Amino acid sequence: MRRKLLAVYAAAFTWASFSYAQTGINYADKVNTLIGNEGKGHGVNERYLEAGYTFPGALYPMGLVQFTPTFFEADRGFVVNQLSGAGCDHMGNFPLLPLHGELKESPKGMTGFKPGYKVQKAVAGYYSVNLFDNIQAGLTVTKRTGMAQFTYPAKDKRATVVIGSGTNATKLSEAYIKITGPGMCEGYADGGSFCGPEQPVNYRVYFVAQFDAAPVASGTWKDDKISAEKSASGPGTGAYFTFNVSAKKVIRYKFAISYVSLANAKLNLKAENTGWDFITTKNKAQAAWNKYLGKIEVSGGSADLTTQFYTHLYHALAHPNISNDVNGEYIGADYKVHKTKGYDNYTSYSNWDTYRTQIQLMALLAPKEASDVVKSTINFANASGGGLPRWVMASTETGIMQGDPTSIVIANAYAFGATDFDAKEALTVMRRGAEVPGTKSQDRLTRPQLEQYLEKGYCDASRNLEYTSADFAIGKFALDALGDKATYNKYLERSRWWKNLYDPSTKWLRSRNADGSWKGQNDDMREASYKSYFWMVPYNLRGIIDTIGGNEAADQRLDEYFSKLNANYHEEWFAAGNEPDFQVPWTYNWIGKPWKTQALIRRIVKEQYTNRPMGLPGNDDLGAMGAWYVFANIGLFPVVPAYGGFSVNSPAFPLIKIHLKGGKTLTIKGGSEEKPYVAVLKINNKSWNNPWIPLSEFKNGGTMTFTLTEQPDKKWGITAEQPSFK
Predict the structure, then answer these.
(1) Burial grade of 6 (CB within 10 A; 0-12, 13-18, 19 or more)
(2) Cα atoms found within 13 Å of the Cα of residue 475, Cβ hemisphere only
(3) What is the annotated signal peptide range for this record (predicted)?
(4) How many CB atoms lie within 10 A of CB 523?
(5) Is the pLDDT of residue 44 over 90?
(6) Dihedral of the CA atoms 145, 339, 349, 56 (nearest 10)?
(7) Nearest to 494 by CA among 400, 360, 404
(8) To 5 degrees, how large is the angle CA 263–CA 266–CA 272?
(9) How far is CA 645 from CA 239, 335, 416, 704, 723, in A?
(10) Residues 354 and 374: beta-carbon distance below 8 Å
């Protein structure tokens, strides 16, 4: 019966995915949003190494609102904004909690509560939890609004809901809340900071909310004092609403936000959430998720593997998120109001992380949205001083991390099918940041040390390696998108500057002083060791392999490197939870030993990922890790930046269908959780003896058929040359 109801419901929404409408499969319910919510117990100071920083609450695919308990100070309750997997305290505005009885003392900063979350259900678009001895709370969302349903126990006569305005996950300075009518309020607050108080985030979030019942009492608080006053401002403030629940046990609540104005927040609420039907709102949110999750249909795998797969796909499609209101208005990088025309504006870019996996997956599955991301990024650059940003929250370039990752994001989006943007304008912006020292996005340099890099051909080692990958991506994009061979050749030459870091006395890449002398072997390695960064020449792996003596020397070095899979940032082994290492397991494909890649990927998946709250090996970083997991389990990974194609391992599911743009479908058959080794691969019934597959092979869809074995086949794929741009 439930299956039939789901099928009927899906058919009612013409925008639901083909697969969902046809099969009635509720992919949203296969998601476990608890995965990655916790660390492995090493303490708060090591969360960055071993916690996912994901959150369990409700969000819409790439939506403006994240309605959830925060990773940071979760006892505050349910907040309206939170980035998934970002490993520094941030956001967490307007926390809300339902309480028993009347409010006896000030909630202050809302850190003194102990809700005792007992999760009932945590799936895509819906979160249900028991709080404070049997207050049942359900959360769901639309694209720009959130909705809650609180059910109080039979014994309760009075109930209070508190909403914090002058508090978030960091330390804010500006806040205001006003009770505007029976069971209604509005306000605003600033963003506080990100990754420490030295990095303020310059946004103001506007908030409007209402209940479906009139309160018997309401008021505000500031610091220690509760007041009947209808407004409060500054830190340590909030509003409360007390209800008579003697007869009516269910209290419903809804809100909308805007980063532009209170008027726009009201407009968002009116446009997207006019009624009080919680179930319908929840069903629409899940249908929206089914549209995207159904882009990849996997079947035949274990329930545990399937749950993890769809959860990681869900994380990969949480961000970037839209920033414009229903009227198209958004705050640009110049902190002025702009308006979209025919596209959505996006924000939340963790580009140092996501250029490696997430943007490629998004471009494949949601090319329209990925194209809008690129348009939004170019607009951000043009409004912020002309340079590309690295890591954007709301309308602020935080400047954290390094390199020029956004050039690679743009090139990867194009290479994997998101081409609906002005390529000429994009290349102009990319080249400006790569050629003009001092180019900035807001107050952050697009390429620190660019002057030395251009003059000497090197800069700090890990930064240098990020720059050479970006240079390759710029050149390849110029060639593929615009047929610009001169720019391609120029940037291909620059991409060879990794060689300026090679120290033949140690046979490792190494940082140099400005005068050319060598620094310490591990100096200037950002969030990883020199052994990690050695392999960060993904566009020229043949070159780096030959430099150290060829395949056998590389094989020995890789075997040693993978003897440990969960290194911290300072250890000299593989770190499954750290982005610089993401592509390295596929390097065996370049040395004629693809069976080692096949076995290693299964080992990483089984040992480092679980279907538990501590089930991630590191920060998810706005879907970067989620996308890694998806690619690893379909058996295809995008190793080479700006080049549409995949390095092969082996699929974990017997049947996979990937729905591509233009109604095309790629079907992958023959996967197995227990058999990792490729013995035979056929593409459209044609034998394929190569662990590299160009994306062009799938331009019309097609079928890949694997024959897998339990023991390694040391003949398949060992002689084919892998892409390497010297």
Answers:
(1) buried
(2) 21
(3) 1-21
(4) 15
(5) no
(6) 0
(7) 404
(8) 135
(9) 54, 38, 8, 14, 10
(10) no
Chain mean pLDDT for the chain: 94
pTM over 0.90: yes
**For the chain, what is the domain count?**
2
Residue 16 pLDDT grade (very low, low, confident, very high; cuts 50, 70, 90): very low
Q: What is the distance in angstroms between the CA of the first residue and the CA of the last residue of the chain?
A: 60
Contact 260, 325 (CB under 8 A): yes
Residue with tokens 């590191």: 618
Residues 275 and 317 in one domain: no
Same domain? For 264 and 382 the reply is: no
Count Cα atoms within 13 angstroms, Cβ side, for 506.
15
- Cβ atoms of residues 528 and 581 within 8 Å: yes
For residues 336 and 190, state if they share a domain: no
- Residue 553 has which token pair? 């020397």
Residue 643 vs residue 12, higher pLDDT: 643
Structure tokens at 308: 């993890």
Q: Which residue has the tokens 């309605």?
A: 67
Between the alpha carbon of residue 649 and those of residues 219, 392, 586, 601, 678, the distances in Å are: 60, 33, 8, 7, 8
The reply to whether 307 and 386 lie within a common domain is: yes
Residue 18 lies in a domain: no
Could you tell me the CATH number of the domain that includes residue 185?
2.70.98.10
Reference 103, options 38, 161, 181; nearest CA is 161
Measured CA to CA, the distance from residue 666 to residue 324 in angstroms comes to 33
Q: Which two tokens stand for residue 82?
A: 């939170």
Q: How many helices (H) and strands (E) does the chain have?
A: 19, 37
In sequence order, which residues have a C-beta less than 8 Å from that of residue 721 and are 6 or more positions away?
A: none
333 lies in the same domain as 467: yes
Last residue of a domain, one of 261, 293, 325: 293
CA distance 204 to 710: 56
pLDDT of residue 7: 36
What CATH number has the domain bearing residue 367? 3.30.2080.10
d(CA 544, CA 367): 33
At what angle are helices 423-435 and 367-384 packed, to 10 degrees? Answer: 50
Give the burial string for 149-162 (b: 16+ CB within 10 Å, else e). Answer: bbbbeeebebbbbb
Omega before residue 200 within 30° of 0, cis: no
Q: What distances in angstroms separate CA 388 from CA 405, 439, 539, one per listed residue?
A: 9, 9, 22
Please answer whether residues 631 and 51 qualify as being in contact, where contact means their C-beta atoms are separated by less than 8 angstroms: no
Q: Which of 22, 311, 71 is CA-nearest to residue 170?
A: 71
Domain termination residue (choose one: 272, 293, 314): 293
For residue 499, what pLDDT band results from cuts at 50, 70 and 90?
Answer: very high
Confidence of residue 23 (pLDDT cuts 50, 70, 90): low
Same structural domain, 152 and 84: yes
Print the domain residue range for 563.
295-709
Whether the per-residue pLDDT at 26 is higher than 90: the answer is yes
Give, in degrees to the nearest 5, the angle at Cα 260 between 348 and 147: 75
Q: How far apart are CA 539 and CA 519, in angstroms?
A: 26
Distance CA 522, CA 353 (A): 21
